[in-house]
Amino acid sequence: MFGLIIGSFLNVVILRLPKNKSIAYPPSHCQTCHKELTPIELIPLFSYLFLRGRCKGCGVRISPRYSLIELLNGLIYILILSVYGIQLETFFALGLASLLIVVTFIDLDHLLIPNKITSTILIWVVTESVVQLASNQISITIMLDRFYGLLLGGGLFLIIAIITKGAMGGGDIKLMGALGYYFGLTHTLGLIFFSFTIGGVLSIALVALKVKSRKDVIPFGPFICLAAFVMLIYGEHIINWYTNLS
Fold first, then answer.
1. In the Cβ-directed half-sphere of 150, how many Cα atoms lie within 13 Å?
2. CB-side exposure of 37: number of CA atoms within 13 Å?
3. Backbone phi, then psi, for 21, in 5-degree steps?
4. Full-model pTM
């Protein structure tokens, strides 16, 4: 339920942030008739079912994507909790997951990753490491490892952007740097690998299915976020498997 509620708020951020609108005011309303939504119309997921997918004021069809984002965030929260258990790290992992959902859908809609989001992610992950350091959960060595992850992730994507003359966007560079700090050096290598693997496979599939043409721009941010979800949930298992294999 907490994941669904946060997911409802994510919809507001995804809709308003790229337009430089306040996420607090005005209150949630119909995008067509501008009727302010009542409490019963704001219940995550269930309001869509109760209203049968239509605005109570004007009857216009409500996009099911709002409910899908709420459900997605809720399911991801359950998955993260099942892996991490109840601890401080879980709280920061949940926050990061929600921010990645915002990045994914904004990049899909507008082909950009706002600086406000990447800076929020960086502040979020740095705050986690500072809290962990203060509570003796991590050492200075781990803090340095995370800094090296930032340099690897952000630095590599910066080099790619320079070589390809801007094919990799500035938002991707900042996002990868922030995630590199969160995951640390070793896990960032896995993040980079899965980003390009997932990006390559899905891009080929989209072109093959004629959803996209070869000339269409395909945002890379969602691939980074999907790879981050993989590392967030299965990263430790993947690294351990690879270490034992080698």
1. 16
2. 22
3. -100, 155
4. 0.93
